[in-house]
Each structure stands twice: as structure tokens, then as C-alpha cells.
Design brief:
By secondary structure, the chain is of the alpha+beta class. It contains 5 helices and 15 strands.
């Protein structure tokens, strides 16, 4: 649980820093809306959406291709054309992205704000999850990246275990995302605690969680509960249900249902 809260804090801080940062490394593409300003020349101020071919039509210099370059590159390109055409001596051009429309990824599942997000800069899986508000308390730590197939080759889902990366520092699976990617944060596995406990219900299953740990999440035994004869219902590989008698130190599996009996005394 503390690990998930840690992720939420990191996500909030990262999202704030990204929102405040200038996306100077963002590569412009078709559908993006940009504003172009030339200092001291308000007649040359305009907003334009890049066409399907990545071009805009600009006063004096006509149609110009900006797709694939950054906003800084667009500023240099427009400045050179204004100067080279003899229109301005030393133009001071400013280009900013008003609306990101060319590169979008989707974030689904257990995140704060599921939805579509524009790629404003080179971003990784963790970066985009942060933009989506981080992982919720119910979210699992394994993230799935789905990518469009290239030609006849089908792209297999990529999986990235945030807990393992956090513990080892290995960010190998923190892939750089591209336009059209879908990031899915599944719900964490749970166990169910019922019977003579103080707070029956579903609880997040942590790695190597034991029966006694699950009971503590369920508020412990009620005044009528007994730790004798605790049973677990567990689904087997064929879809059937096993009824098992367990001890307090036995490890649990996803979707186990724990039943605590009432004492006969």
C-alpha cells in the first residue's frame, strides 16, 4: 500500500513539472495547432493548424512545411524565409503549440484520470501514467503496453512491473511511447475476507501475503471469531472451487475467499 502511495506522489510531482515545462523537444505533426508571433509585427501574428501534409500557409512566405521539426526549428525556418525574402531585417519569431493533435496515447484502467493524452515530448510509460494522475489505490503494479501492429507482424503486449523496477532500479521495461499506444493499468489482485471479522470485504493482495495478514486488513477477528478451522475457497486451473482448511501462516492466492468461523464458546 505504501508503494502505491509513493507512486501517486511521484506522479503528481511529475505531472506538475511537465505541465510547467516548455515542450521544446516536441516534433510537430499534422493536426497540431500552433501560434506564430513576430515581435513588433502584430500583422504577422496568427494561429494555424498543420495540414495533413504538415504544412501551414503564412503571410509573405506562403505555404511552409513544419511537420517533423520542433517549435524551435519552426521559428528558425520562418525567420530565415522572412529575412531571405527581404521582408524583415532581423525577425524575432516565436512559435508555440496551442493544441496537440498529432500524437496521442490512451491510458486505461486504474489511473486517476483515464483518457487520451497528447505526447508533448519524448515520454515513457511512467511519464504518461503520471500525466494520467498516477495509479489508484486499486491499481496493480504491472502495466501493459499495447502497440499497433506494423504490417503483417502483430505486436505482442509489453509488460512492465513497476514494483520490480522500484526495488531493483531496472527501468528496461519503461518503454518510450509512440502515437497510438494504449497503456493499461489492470486492477490489483484481491482476496476476500468474510465471516467473524470486524471489517469483512475485499482487500488488495500483496506479494506473499499470508492468512493472518489478510485477517489484519479485515480488522482482525470479531469478539465471536476464532482462528481455529479457518477455510479458504480457491479456484483451481479447471475453473472449479476447492475448499481448503488453512493455517495463519499459509500464503494466499488471487481471489481467495477466507471464511472465519464463530467460536462455539
Amino acid at each position: 500500500m505504501r508503494f502505491v502511495r509513493f507512486l501517486a506522489v511521484v506522479a503528481t510531482l511529475f505531472a506538475a513539472s511537465v505541465s510547467a515545462a516548455m515542450a521544446q523537444d516536441y516534433a510537430l505533426g499534422p493536426g497540431d495547432v500552433i501560434s506564430i508571433n513576430v515581435y513588433d509585427f502584430p500583422d504577422l501574428t496568427m494561429e494555424a493548424r498543420l495540414s495533413a501534409t504538415g504544412t501551414v500557409s503564412y503571410p509573405l512566405i506562403g505555404r511552409i512545411k513544419l511537420s517533423g521539426g520542433t517549435t524551435t526549428a519552426a521559428e528558425d525556418q520562418i525567420s530565415k524565409k522572412l529575412k531571405g525574402g527581404g521582408f524583415l531585417t532581423n525577425p524575432n519569431v516565436r512559435v508555440e503549440v496551442v493544441e496537440y493533435g498529432s500524437k496521442v496515447v490512451s491510458v486505461l484502467g486504474e489511473v486517476g484520470l483515464p483518457g487520451k493524452y497528447p505526447l508533448q515530448r519524448t515520454s515513457s510509460v511512467i511519464d504518461v501514467i503520471a500525466l494520467a494522475g498516477g495509479i489508484t489505490e486499486l491499481g496493480g503494479t504491472e502495466v501493459i503496453l499495447l502497440r499497433k501492429s506494423k504490417g503483417a507482424a502483430k505486436q505482442p503486449p509489453q509488460r512492465f512491473d513497476l514494483r520490480q523496477a522500484y526495488g531493483s532500479g531496472d527501468l528496461t521495461g519503461n518503454y518510450e511511447v509512440v502515437d497510438g499506444d494504449v497503456i493499461v493499468v489492470p486492477r490489483a489482485p484481491v482476496v476476500y475476507v468474510y465471516g467473524a471479522v470486524n471489517a469483512p470485504g475485499a482487500y488488495r493482495l500483496e506479494p506473499q501475503m499470508t492468512v493472518v495478514q489478510a485477517l489484519s486488513l479485515g480488522g482482525g477477528l470479531s469478539e465471536f471469531g476464532t482462528d481455529s478451522g479457518i477455510r479458504v475457497e480457491r479456484r483451481n486451473g479447471s475453473g472449479g472451487v476447492q475448499d481448503l482448511e488453512v493455517s495463519l501462516n499459509d500464503a494466499l492466492q488471487p481471489n481467495d475467499v477466507i471464511y472465519v468461523r464463530e467460536s462455539v464458546f
